[in-house]
Amino acid sequence: MAVRAIVVLCLGVLIMAGPRESVPAEPAGRITGVGGVFFKAKDPKALAAWYRDVLGLPLEAWGGAALRYDAPKHPPALIWSPFPASTDYFAPSTAEFMINYAVDDMDAFLARLRARGVAILKSEDDANGRFAWILDPEGNKIELWEPKPTALP
C-alpha cells in the first residue's frame, strides 16, 4: 500500500508540473577542451628531463606528460587567452607563448624550485589566487598558479 501511495504521489507531481520545454542540445562539431600543448625545443629530451626533475611533471615513456583534469585541486577550467603581439607580459622570454601550470601549494612548490637553483622572477597574490613566474632552461616563461578554491578568471 505504501509503495502504491508513493507511485501515485510521484505521478501526481509529474502531471501537475506539466510539459517542460526541452532544452536544445549543443550541436555537434564544437571544441570541448584542450587536448594538448605542443611546442618546439632546442633539446626536447633535456627540456623534458628538466620539467620532470625540477617541476615534477610526470613524464610518460613517450616523452610527454598526461595531466589529468580530475587531479586533486585541478582548476575547474583551462583558460585560453590570446595577448596582443606587443605585450611584455611574457618578458623576459622572447617566446610567443607562456604556459600556466596550476600548483597545489605555492609555498612548497617555490621552496622546491629554489632548492634546485631556479630563480623566481616574481610572485604575487590577487583575487584569482597566488602566482609566480620562472624561466625554463630554454628561456620560456612559465606562470605558476595556485587558484583560490573557487577562483576562475
What does this structure look like?
- With 153 residues, the protein is an alpha+beta fold.
- It has a domain at 70-153: Signal recognition particle alu RNA binding heterodimer, srp9/1 (2-Layer Sandwich), CATH 3.30.720.110.
- It contains three helices and four strands.
- It has a four-stranded mixed β-sheet with strand order 1-4-3-2, with no helix packed on it.
- A hairpin with a 2-residue loop joins strand 2 and strand 3 (129-135).
- The radius of gyration is 23 Å and the shape is globular.
- 4% of the residues are buried.
- Residues 1-17 have low confidence and may be disordered.
Quick tags:
alpha+beta, Signal recognition particle alu RNA binding heterodimer, srp9/1
Write a concise synopsis of the structure shown.
This protein is of the alpha+beta class. 25% of the residues lie in helices and 15% in strands.
Lay out the secondary structure:
Elements: H1 2-17, H2 44-55, E1 99-102, H3 106-115, E2 122-126, E3 129-135, E4 141-147
Parallel strand pairs: 1-4
Antiparallel strand pairs: 2-3, 3-4
